[in-house]
Amino acid sequence: MPPGEEPRPWHTLTFWIGGATIGALVAVIAIVLAVALGGGDDEAASPDAALIGQEQTAEELQEQFAERDRQQVERMTGEAKEIADAFGPTLAAFDEALRKRTPPTPASEQWLDKADDYAEQFRPTESGETATNVARAALRESLEGLVNAIATYRLAASGNPDAIIARARNQRDIAIRTWSAASTQIDAINIAAGFGHQHVPQLGGEAVRGIAPDTLPEGTDAQED
């Protein structure tokens, strides 16, 4: 180095000491990163594994919910068919009383009790798929409508019997049309559940016309599990 010339930075001892220090720090950092990354292969995979586990759990829950809904559809269909068969004679007697405008018969108390018992089957809330919930609600409202219609008929002994009987007839008609909507929905959810077409008998006979069921045989379009 010529006399009087300032030493260049990279020619000084301080520069090289500093460089060595920085180099050592970089090496330490590199080692730490290598260990962290190398030893964390399993850990790095664990979030994915946890996610897969969550997806499997979600799928299992969905399958359980679908199976529970399927069981509810099957049970509700059976209950609706049993009610339609057992309630038929009662509704036939009720229709005759409405047409003849006879005073409330003592048998109407049994009609009311029977209607209330059937309605009670669907009053508790039972969660399922939206379509299943709609069918259950329609069944409940149909039977509640018949409860109210029979109760109104039993009031015909007081006040204006003609007006009360007309109101009972209207309530009966609404209830039977609601039943027809529910039975149509039951047919749809049975198809979706793999049971094929399932036709719940209509209530009311020729007295009131609701949604006519299709003419396909029972079980058409059924699928195996």
Question: How does this structure look, described?
Answer:
The chain has 225 residues and is mainly α. It has a domain at 71-225. It has helices spanning 13-39, 41-100, 108-120, 130-153, 161-193. α2 runs parallel beside α4, α2 packs antiparallel against α5 (161-193) and α4 runs antiparallel to α5 (161-193). The longest helix is centred in the first third of the chain and has 60 residues, at 41-100. It is elongated, with a radius of gyration of 38 Å. Mean pLDDT is 78; it is low at 5-22, 24-37 and 39-47.
Give a quick summary of the entry.
This protein has helices at 13-39, 41-100, 108-120, 130-153, 161-193. It is built from five helices and no strands.
Unreliable runs: 5-22, 24-37, 39-47
Q: What is the average per-residue confidence, as pLDDT, rounded to a whole number?
A: 78
Decide which structural class fits the backbone.
mainly alpha
Largest sheet: none
Radius of gyration of CA atoms, rounded to a whole number: 38 Å
Beta strand %: under 5%
- SSE order, one letter for each helix or strand: HHHHH
- Record field, number of beta strands: 0
Label the overall shape: elongated
Indicate the percent of residues in helices: 55-70%
Q: How many angstroms does the end-to-end distance come to?
A: 93 Å
Total count of helical runs of at least 4 residues: 5
